[in-house]
Amino acid sequence: MATAAAAEKRKPVFIKVEELKPGTNGHNLTVKILDSKPVPVPKPRHAPMSLSQRPARINECLVGDETGCIVFTARNEQVEMMNPGATIILRNAKIDMFKGSMRLAVDKWGRVEVAEPASFAVKETNNLSLVEYELVTVQA
């Protein structure tokens, strides 16, 4: 039997960009968009494209807060919200690894929302996507 307290939704816990770590997920962040660039998507070579299979749109966006910045990969309908200078809220974001560096992404289980303009200045000197990670296996 669920109690009234358990039935209430948990308040989302918001973190800062500098707290992001490789291989983690479930992050909620408020970030400013610094830059947004389209990524060319190769056309599939196999079957002809039907009307329901529109080509994917992908933008790489530099986003951040007062603690640092990171590259956010915006997909399809998320691309329209990626206007430099805008403030967005990322809910249930995850860290994807791409060529050894971290990328922030929001899949179908998360949400991207345009927010009221934030008052913080983005710390561009701490770009987490420029840190290269190497997978190391530890022998037992």
UniProtKB/TrEMBL annotation:
It comes from the Eukaryota. It holds the Pfam family OB_Ssb-like. SUPFAM superfamilies: Nucleic acid-binding proteins. Residues 20-114 form the Single-stranded DNA binding protein Ssb-like OB fold domain. InterPro entries: NA-bd_OB-fold, OB_Ssb-like. This is Single-stranded DNA binding protein Ssb-like OB fold domain-containing protein. It comes from Salix udensis. The lineage of its organism: Eukaryota, Viridiplantae, Streptophyta, Embryophyta, Tracheophyta.
